[in-house]
Write a structure and sequence with these properties.
Two copies of one chain form a homodimer. By secondary structure, chain A is mainly β. Chain A contains three helices and 15 strands. In chain A, strand 14 and strand 15 form a beta hairpin. At the A-B interface, strand 1, strand 2, strand 5, strand 6 and helix 2 of A face strand 1, strand 2, strand 5, strand 6 and helix 2 of B.
């Protein structure tokens, strides 16, 4: 075996790219975030790891709500901008279009392909980050991103992120049917 | 705006495909898992959402250790097999090659492109799932998967998963430099 031991600070390959919407100090803000995962099936819960120094962390703690928005690859510049510029210094609500659903403090980005509005249900305190767990109470998309009523990743054309090389990627080819293609290995 | 409200049980686009290694009832087991994210920067913590009925959940609770392994797209059949067949019924340690690092109860899959061995540091109890938080204590790869000493996703060629359409995907084209391409939008 040719395995080599690399540093423990390794990452997930790849992270999805999302934009987290919050209302902070009375204005809408969006932050780029890759540390996101579903964490529970029923009810639908999603978790996000947010550095405790981020403006977004303050907003989630204040309003107990947030949104998760998927940019298309066409939105690469604005998505990266949301990751570079802090809402502490720049009022991003002036340059981005957003809308609201049921929650009046979880702005969602209009241009995004899929938006989920979330109600905070738990906060796990970790050494450098908060891990916020939210219940998805509604999700919004457009007909053009659906196939058979389900979001279609090739139509959404989202971005992926790898760290620590800090590169964005698109989604490639269809590779196979899940919970199916492995059946041939069953005895 | 043409937004439509779809069901709240929406997913992350896309999930990375991983295989979680555990030792359960004295034998190595691997389960396919897409609900994974880094959750903390320093120390490097990773979280996984595991249904409490899974054999893997039992192993993590017993040994307080687990591993996260990235299959290449060439491993699509064996990865899916690990998601279809429960270790409760089939001893997968007979059909998979694995090795150990520092922890003697966190088997890692030899064929995987990148393996992380993790020590359990916290368990969050959610309605249908455990959310296990592990500290990555070491990571293993092979020289052929590195570029400039960092894992290179195009060399690793991992799998992505979308739900609820249950389809696997590969990673596509390089799209741009993170924390850089958005600078042109700064005033």
């Amino acid at each position: 075996m040719m395995k080599i031991n690399i540093e423990a600070n390794t990452y997930v390959y790849p992270n999805p790219v999302t934009l987290v919407g919050t209302e902070v100090e009375g204005r809408a803000n969006f932050m780029a975030l890759g540390w996101v995962s579903r964490v529970n099936a029923k009810p639908p819960l999603v978790g996000i790891g947010v550095n405790r120094l981020h403006f977004t962390a303050k907003g989630i703690q204040e309003t107990k709500t947030f949104s998760i928005n998927y940019p298309s690859a066409d939105m690469i510049e604005v998505s990266d901008y949301c990751g570079i510029v802090s809402g502490k210094k720049v009022d991003k609500s002036n340059v981005l279009e957003f809308f609201y659903g049921y929650l009046k403090t979880a702005p969602m980005m209009t241009e995004s392909t899929l938006c989920m509005e979330c109600k905070l249900v738990d906060t796990i305190e970790l050494p450098s980050n908060h891990f916020f767990i939210g219940e998805i109470i509604a999700a919004y998309t457009e007909e053009k991103y659906l196939t058979d009523g389900k979001p279609d990743i090739k139509k959404m054309n989202p971005l992926l992120l790898t760290m620590p090389d800090n590169r964005y990627w698109t989604v490639g080819e269809y590779a196979g049917k899940a919970w199916s293609i492995g059946k041939k290995l069953k005895k």
